[in-house]
Amino acid sequence: MKILITGGAGFIGSHVVRLFVNKYPDYTIYNLDKLTYAGNLENLRDIENKPNYKFVKGDIVDAGFINELFAKEQFNAVIHLAAESHVDRSITNPLEFVYTNVIGTVNLLNAAKTLFKQEGSSFKRFYHVSTDEVYGSLGDEGMFTETTAYDPHSPYSASKASSDHFVRAYHDTYKLPCVISNCSNNYGPYHFPEKLIPLCINNIKHNRSLPIYGKGENVRDWLFVEDHARAIDVIFHKAKEGSTYNIGGHNEWKNIDVIRLLCRIMDKKLNREPGCNEKLITFVTDRAGHDLRYAIDSTKLQNELGWKPSLQFEEGLEKTVDWYLANETWLENVTSGSYAHYYEDQYARR
Ligand code: NAD
Ligand code: TYD
Predict the structure, then answer these.
(1) What is the architecture of the domain spanning 2-344?
(2) Which is the most buried residue in 60, 84, 242, 271, by most CB within 10 A?
(3) With contact defined as beta carbons under 8 Å apart, do 298 and 247 qualify?
(4) Active-site annotation holder among 33, 133, 227, 252
């Protein structure tokens, strides 16, 4: 099998590429990534020389390039993770999210459809990796199931919802063998330090303030990234065509409680006085349109395909802190100037 994984140099994509390259030596894994500020080949140093791994630099928004690549390589399957993924960036530049998340996805669907419609086609699967944020925001009660109506609020979640609709449309209209999964918030190694947990790990390390939006009452359902990668493996191999699975850890935390726990873990790891890091917590202006609560019901995935999360949050968070403290160079490289300038260049060109 020749599998194209898009966005494989990003946070979740790098864990999926690593899992597939190591677990399936008979598959050839192509990692297609534009290497935006969020994409980093350092994330894949341990597997980059494996004979079943190939890297392709490219932009999914470029239809001509995508069509040529599919015609040349005749992939048997796609696992699509490439996306603009940060809600705050989507608020300042929504159009970039429309380009990559919507148009990029439709370009991939078109190229996959062309392979699928060829005589004697061996194209088997288009797997679209999506988010629970498409379902909108919950009150104090309830959970998102696979049948919850879409109700996105941020430009990021609206672009992901749109891409999910296109994937379903290609399944229903052209019979393209698609599956979709919608996952809750991930955390773990290689997470770009603009997102809450790695941002706060980095700030605690440098004794900088920890910006908590609003009152820190917003609730997220956190899943260790390697558990997400395992779920993707199971769904890729076992899910029925046209199906959707929710992925989540049954692990809801208010933001303020996550950061307090992180502060306590890092007091110990950095040999600081108990309570010292909590003093860095600073409440700042809330995010516009900030969804109050996400909670995923992953019963369908657990019952039908036998997946379940492997780690407790406290254990996973400690593991994550250990990784960031042991990988200082990675953290310094991704927070250095070249990454910060990437977006200015993008805006100037469009
Ligand atoms: P990320 O921002 O860390 O990585 C995205 C990757 O896509 C980067 O390597 C980037 O270079 C690449 N990319 C961006 N634009 C591209 C383009 N135009 N062409 C080719 N490559 C491009 O994101 P992530 O957190 O790893 O998320 C991966 C996927 O999982 C996304 O589709 C996201 O919506 C989804 N998801 C994320 C989470 C989460 O908590 N992070 C939860 C559920 C679902
Ligand atoms: P984030 O990691 O950006 O993920 P998402 O918006 O996709 O859920 O944010 C997680 C939660 O943390 C969310 O409720 C927003 C909040 N947050 C802060 O309070 N401060 C921050 O600096 C960031 C980046 C996020």
Answers:
(1) 3-Layer(aba) Sandwich (3.40)
(2) 60
(3) yes
(4) 133
Nearest ligand to the CA atom of 195: 2
pLDDT of residue 338: 60
CA-wise closest residue to 194 among 88, 348, 329, 51: 88
User: Catalytic residue at 156?
Assistant: yes
Residue 33's nearest CA partner among 48, 51, 50 is 48
Contact criterion met (CB below 8 Å) for 16 and 42: no
Q: How many CA atoms lie within 13 A of 83 on its CB side?
A: 28
In terms of pLDDT, which residue wins out, 65 or 342? 65
* Nearest protein CA to atom 29 of ligand 1, as residue: 81
Residue ranges of alpha helices (H) inside 74-175 are 87-92, 94-97, 104-117, 155-174
Residue range 97-105: mean pLDDT, rounded = 98
Name the band, by pLDDT with cuts 50, 70 and 90, for residue 336: confident
Residues 155-189 pLDDT 10s: 999 999 999 999 999 999 999 999 999 999 999 99
Instruction: Assess whether 291 carries a catalytic annotation.
Output: no
**Could you confirm whether 119 is annotated as catalytic?**
no
Place of tokens 């349109």: 289
End-to-end CA distance of the chain: 37
Between strands 77-80 and 125-131, the pairing is parallel
* Ligand 1 and 61: CB distance under 6 A: yes
Place of tokens 């706060």: 200
Using alpha carbons, list the distances in angstroms from residue 2 to 29, 54, 124, 191.
6, 10, 10, 27
